[in-house]
Amino acid sequence: MNVYGLKEFANKVPELLRKKTRNKKNPEKWSWVPAKPDKIKNILKYRTRETKAVNYACMSNYRPTDKKQNIVLLFAMGNLSYSLVSHLEENKLSYFFLDYPQFVVKGSVTVSTNDGRMSKILQMEDLRLNLDDVKVVLWNPPKYPYPFTDSDMIPRTSRRNKFLHRKRWAQFLRELSGLLPEDVTWVPGNPFNGSQEWQNKISEYLIAHECGLQVPPFIFTNKRKELSKFSEQQGTRLLLREFASPPYSFPPVNINTQHVPEELLKTSPCFFQKYIEKEYEFRVVVLFDKIFPCKIYSQDSELAREDWRVYDDARVKWELTTLPEEVCAKIIQIREKLGLLWCSIDLIYSKDGNYYYLETNRPGAHYWLELFVGLDIGKEIALVLKEKKLSDTLT
């Protein structure tokens, strides 16, 4: 079976990779001044130091006792792990850091009921976590434990051990929300909507529209006739966007709808969107009720004009800015409707003077924002947890 879009997407990925940018690691030659030029210039040294500081299966400043405690269960968050751990410690917040793939190899879990009492303990060497003490979960779904992709059937004998190993550890993750206290706060959100794998891009557009933000004109269809009607109003040159969640996603690609074969389109629906001419783009970090809008001058670069992810950093300036109050209110509404506490929303400010919603990332990449605009998300998360008293401070 052939479907429309595979050839177009396959051509788009190498096109982005082929675009050569200059002076990426030499901010002295950039057309703008980032917040931390020295860290950008020596990024490998900084990254190595930060990685070593959190390169453990478990880290904790907490020990379980007979008394109920409130702690933060922190899953490894890649580049953000170091910032999160250091700022939780700085703000005297109790935490249990868990690198799940390493824990799978080195740790143990015991959930049992005996004499009418329920016990739920994770252990790694001398570090123990009583799941009843967890008040906040900073959640980043690990990749390793998931069973083999699309494998609904038990594999052949040679792969059964690995299949069951991964399946059992993955199932424990799925069980986790039921093993923790009911009043636990999940950040960025519930495991079943607080990760990129549970993003629903089409319904997000409907939510944004209901909240009053403009969305680019789009059509989701597998009917060539309906696509033709849409093209008559919006033009034949549209963006083809993959609406499925990762790992089945590709960058948007410009297409001519006159060249969309009916026999390929009808096999599965596709998402077509009008291209919006931009003045600026925004990556808006939303943390509870705090909003951190980052303005992206993508139109200053010929390479990044259509997609800032080409990363022409020397020409594309970033700055921490503000948004109109009515736009901020709509962004908070979107976050609430999506059931998230931490996310990144992509916006366009168009040449016709409107803000257009593109998507919500869960929670979205953040590491470079500290380098570019001085926004340390780990620090901001620790401050919010402390302000809202979501975790007891250490004595």
Furnish the topology, listing elements before pairings:
Elements (H helix, E strand, L loop, with lengths): L5 H13 L18 H5 L1 H11 L4 E3 L10 E5 L5 H10 L4 E4 L1 H7 L1 E7 L2 E8 L2 E4 L3 E5 L18 H23 L5 E3 L13 H10 L7 E4 L2 H11 L2 E5 L11 E4 L5 H4 L4 E4 L4 E10 L2 E7 L21 E3 L4 H13 L4 E9 L4 E7 L5 H7 L3 H11 L8
Parallel strand pairs: 2-3, 2-7, 7-8
Antiparallel strand pairs: 1-3, 4-5, 5-6, 9-12, 10-11, 10-12, 13-14, 13-16, 14-15, 16-17
Helix pairs in contact: 4-12
Helix run count: 12
Q: What's the shape?
A: globular
Order of helices and strands: HHHEEHEHEEEEHEHEHEEHEEEEHEEHH
Read across the widest sheet, the strand sequence of neighbours is 1-3-2-7-8
Q: Using DSSP, what is the number of strands?
A: 17
User: Which structural class do the helices and strands define?
Assistant: alpha+beta
Which oligomeric state applies? single chain
Low-confidence stretches: none
The helix content is: 25-40%
Question: What composes the largest sheet?
Answer: 5 strands, mixed
Our estimate of the beta-strand percent is 15-25%
